[in-house]
Amino acid sequence: MDIILKAAVRAPDHGRLAPWRLTVIEGAAREKLGQAYVNLKRRLSPDQPSFDQGKELMKAFRAPTIIAVGVSIQEDHKVPAVEQIVAAGAAVQNMFLAAHALGLGAMWKTGDLAYDDNMKSLLGLKASDAIVALLFVGTPPKLPPAPVAELKGCVSWL
Ligand SMILES: Cc1cc2nc3c(=O)[nH]c(=O)nc-3n(C[C@H](O)[C@H](O)[C@H](O)COP(=O)(O)O)c2cc1C
């Protein structure tokens, strides 16, 4: 975890603002994340009061460790908000690469929970801040084949 977190904070970071806010959620603390999934589902689906709570709760238990990546956005700073956000995205990618280099698997997830003010509050963030990733980290039962990089359509030359 030390290697993975150090990789995060070494991300390119305009103005050295360290805009990322990393929260490691593991072991029993995943219950709090699971509860956040349950509460959000309850709020988003008031017409479905008998939804499967266990299913929502188990979303937090898909990996032994989840690293939530928030961005404490400084508004009206000479470094625009978008650059602060992409720096946090780069921190996520660095963690991804570090995890893979260590033989671990990682999955970058967002979903509705990333845009939920209660979840932001759980992470000590303001409503105007952002959550850019819930990075699920663990040992995969087997690694899927790497997707083939396709340049078609997304690259052009001037
Ligand atoms: C900002 C961002 C949010 C993402 N959110 C989700 C998500 O909520 N659910 C999901 O299945 N994949 C999501 N992904 C994509 C995958 O997590 C990511 O491609 C995967 O972890 C790496 O697998 P790959 O090597 O097959 O691309 C997201 C990716 C990014 C960049």
TrEMBL record:
<dbReference type="GO" id="GO:0016491">
    <property type="term" value="F:oxidoreductase activity"/>
</dbReference>
<feature type="binding site" description="in other chain">
    <location>
        <begin position="108"/>
        <end position="110"/>
    </location>
    <ligand>
        <name>FMN</name>
    </ligand>
</feature>
<protein>
    <submittedName>
        <fullName>Nitroreductase</fullName>
    </submittedName>
</protein>
<feature type="binding site">
    <location>
        <position position="14"/>
    </location>
    <ligand>
        <name>FMN</name>
    </ligand>
</feature>
<dbReference type="Pfam" id="PF00881">
    <property type="entry name" value="Nitroreductase"/>
</dbReference>
<keyword id="KW-0520">NAD</keyword>
<dbReference type="InterPro" id="IPR029479">
    <property type="entry name" value="Nitroreductase"/>
</dbReference>
<feature type="domain" description="Nitroreductase">
    <location>
        <begin position="4"/>
        <end position="138"/>
    </location>
</feature>
<keyword id="KW-0521">NADP</keyword>
<dbReference type="InterPro" id="IPR026021">
    <property type="entry name" value="YdjA-like"/>
</dbReference>
<feature type="binding site">
    <location>
        <position position="10"/>
    </location>
    <ligand>
        <name>FMN</name>
    </ligand>
</feature>
<dbReference type="InterPro" id="IPR052530">
    <property type="entry name" value="NAD(P)H_nitroreductase"/>
</dbReference>
<keyword id="KW-0285">Flavoprotein</keyword>
<keyword id="KW-0560">Oxidoreductase</keyword>
<keyword id="KW-0288">FMN</keyword>
<dbReference type="InterPro" id="IPR000415">
    <property type="entry name" value="Nitroreductase-like"/>
</dbReference>
<comment type="similarity">
    <text>Belongs to the nitroreductase family.</text>
</comment>
